[in-house]
Structures are given as C-alpha cells and as structure tokens.
Fold:
Amino acid sequence: MPVPWEALIPFGLLVGLFGVAGTGLNIVKRSQNDWKPPRYSLDRWEEMMMERDRRLTGTLRGQRTDPIAPKEFATNSVWDSTRLNA
Structure:
C-alpha cells in the first residue's frame, strides 16, 4: 500500500503549529510567574503565604531572606480601607 506523501505536509504543519502554540503558552505562563513553573492545587495557607510574599516583595513568587520586614510592611494591609468609609 503506497504512502500518501502529500498528507505529510499538512500533518507537519499541524504538528508544528500546535508545538509553537504550546511553547508560546508555556513561555507566557512562566513569564507571568517569575520564570518558575505554575503552582497547582493551592490551599488557603499557600494563598495567604503568597499574599504575604506579594506584600513583602511585590511579586507572588518573591521571597526575602531578611529576618526583619521593611517599614512599609506595617502599613500596607491586605484589608481594603477605601470601603470602610462608605
């Protein structure tokens, strides 16, 4: 049975474009996540720690080695104070 060589061109195009799309999606997800792999199945504790890291460093994945928090950490609360006076 002969091989339909004409079918390999569209097959190659499909495989190539799916590969480009998947690689592009991976690059975009990692660039938004400080070039680290995405986290899955986060529980409440991990979300709180990510919020604390965001308040300390400005990014969800950033961490500090300083034992003392900066002065700004005392005033940048997670509570939205703009809705309290409404």
Summary: The mean pLDDT is 83. Residues 40-76 form one domain.
